[in-house]
Amino acid sequence: MNCPFCRHPDSRVVDSRTAEDGTAIRRRRQCPACERRFTTVEQLTLAVVKRSGATEPFSRDKVVTGVRKACQGRGVDEDALARLAQRIEERFRGAGCAEIPSNEVGLAILEPLRELDEVAYLRFASVYRGFDSLADFEAEIAALREVS
Known about the structure:
It comes from Phytoactinopolyspora halophila. This is Transcriptional repressor NrdR. Residues 46-136 form the ATP-cone domain. GO terms for molecular function: ATP binding; DNA binding; zinc ion binding. This protein is α+β, with helices and mostly antiparallel strands. It folds into two domains: 12-43, no CATH class; 47-147. It is 47% helix and 21% strand. The protein contains five helices and six strands, in the order E-E-E-E-E-H-H-E-H-H-H. The strands form two sheets. The protein has a three-stranded antiparallel β-sheet, with no helix packed on it. It has a three-stranded mixed β-sheet with strand order 5-4-6. Strand 2 (24-30) and strand 3 (37-43) form a beta hairpin. Helix 1 crosses helix 4 (118-128), helix 2 (78-95) crosses helix 3 (102-116) and helix 3 (102-116) packs antiparallel against helix 4. The longest helix has 18 residues, at 78-95. It starts with 11 loop residues before the first strand and ends with a helix.
């Protein structure tokens, strides 16, 4: 880590603490050349790899937006949607993955959404899995009944 004051190429860590709900590490550093102190923040960045190969940062808001469409008219409150998105993000952060394929994000949403609202689950699954016929819905409903 280069010193921001004198550009010395080395620094010593004086103190480390977790920040931002454990998703970042705040480090207090000291330069051995000029002896000035500065702070750095290290944060794990989750990236979603799209089907096209493009990457973009993971966004809880995008998860909530997608699930909100499936829950439209179902009486699911915003807090439940926010908790679901947080649960998805924590799952991937806990796995220590830096890049996640977009289809894994969709698969990770399905189980918590099933627990939240079965009709919303069917709506989301029908779009995510590309249901083409009534038989696809019937098979998914049969699978839901077996689990329940």
